[in-house]
Amino acid sequence: MATSPAPTIATPLRLPCGAVLPNRLCKSAMTEGVGDAWHRATPRHETLYRRWREGGVGLSITGNVMIDRTVLERPGNVAIDPTDPRTTDAAARARLARWARAGTGEGAHLWMQVSHAGRQSPRYVTARTVGPSAVGLELMGNYARPRALDEPAIRDFISRFGHAAAIARDCGFTGVQVHAAHGYLVSAFLSPVTNRRDDGWGGTLQNRARFLIEAVRATRAAVGADFPVSVKLNSDDFRKGGFSHADCLEVVRLLGAESVDLLEISGGTYEQPRLLGHEGIAESAMPVRKSTRAREAYFIEYADAIRRVATVPLLLTGGFRSRQAMDAALAEGACDAVGLGRPLVTEPDLPLRLLDGRSRAAHAHERDLVFARRGWRSPTSRWLPMRVANVLGAQGWYYQQILRLADGRDPDPALGLAPAIVAYLAEELRGAWRRRRAWSRPAPA
Ligand SMILES: Cc1cc2nc3c(=O)[nH]c(=O)nc-3n(C[C@H](O)[C@H](O)[C@H](O)COP(=O)(O)O)c2cc1C
Predict the structure, then answer these.
(1) 21-50: per-residue pLDDT in tens?
(2) SS (H, E, C) the chain
(3) Based on the structure, what is the number of domains in the chain?
(4) Within a domain: 144
(5) Residue 428 falls within a domain, yes or no?
């Protein structure tokens, strides 16, 4: 009997809904920060996603598009908020449609990541964050204590996942992803640290997962059976008492009964930014498994266990840099697709070069970042401000490179970490100010 050859990054992937990804390389969600003051898509989104599509990825997932324009992950987010018609009217949809056109074509997919920031919305965006419970994020005073959502607000936000997904489909996006990772609202419901409710939305894991399950159902009901619906989930929050790997396995089992096409595996939150391979607040940290394989793909050991209980295709994201590790993960069956974030910021055409053999790996620019080189990334460093500066600096550095790509320029590997932090913070504050001024003004076409 002939056995089918092991998949490689070049092998197409057929999803349960019938859609086909032309290869196994996916650009994972990265917040772009180039929305306008009314949280609508701009020509910069088009330039950015055209560049990634032309660079050879089979699937691009947008940065988080927010369902609540008052509680954002950052001021430059795109929002689809039914309470503000400026984010959903014909002009807003025309902008989304242009973005979708630029990021699709020749079989390549562009999926919209749909999200609510929950308690992880910085003070310069809002002093009114929300969460399952009033448990604040203690990160250098930058996050307000959230208001615990009541039942009607929970139901409203669940329906907004479906609302945004329907608009994404109408505008030409070829799939959607529910963001249930990294400590944002859906993820906060999953964690016993941030979800202290004693009603039907908290307590048992089944109850904590209810928000996610209902958001997935609302999404599927809105887009129909033949449209890709994905979920991004933490393999573990890596926080004492938080959403654990055992919880994750149980949620994966629950998701098996829903109609999900691709489950993306990540890990960590703002407190424990393991999604980027960084250490977080030492006092509440849980250790990460570290094998030779996991040195490149942060969550591969977790994916092995998830695979044993999952009935849906898996996308594994975090740390992948070499074709060898990507093909090995696919051939071993740890995952069905490989997610790439930072490498596609510094090398947007990396997929093409990996696929045709011109490159064997990404250049690891993050290792060259200034603070990291001075050893401040050390796991033994307990000085939180330096850890925060390191993560902020690295984020700021990638944000600046994304802005360059969005303006049609090439990335600048020589950009220093300190100038990147300054430019990033200035851009955020400028964005927050522009957004406040636009609040009461009609949006131009
Ligand atoms: C600049 C930047 C922005 C990000 N924004 C998002 C986001 O909006 N949504 C999300 O789910 N993950 C986001 N992430 C996490 C990435 O999707 C990915 O999980 C992470 O970068 C690890 O993959 P990598 O090692 O290939 O970079 C972001 C990461 C970076 C570097």
Answers:
(1) 999 999 999 999 999 999 999 999 999 999
(2) CCCCCCCCCCCCEECCCCCEECCCEEECCCCCCCCCCCCCCCHHHHHHHHHHHHCCCCEEECCCEECCCCCCCCCCCCECCCCCHHHCCHHHHHHHHHHHHHHCECCEEEEEEEECCCCCCECCCCCCCEECCCCCCCCCCCECCCEECCHHHHHHHHHHHHHHHHHHHHCCCCEEEEEECCCCHHHHHHCCCCCCCCCCCCCCHHHHCHHHHHHHHHHHHHHCCCCCEEEEEECCCCECCCCCHHHHHHHHHHHHCCCCCEEEEECCCCCCCHHHCCCCCHHHECCCCCCHHHHHCCCHHHHHHHHHHCCCCEEEECCCCEHHHHHHHHHHCCCCEEEECHHHHHCCCHHHHHHCCCCCECCCHHHHCHHHHCCCCCCCCCCHHHHHHHHHHHHHHHHHHHHHHHCCCCCCCCCCHHHHHHHHHHHHHHHHHHHHHHCCCCCCC
(3) 1
(4) yes
(5) no
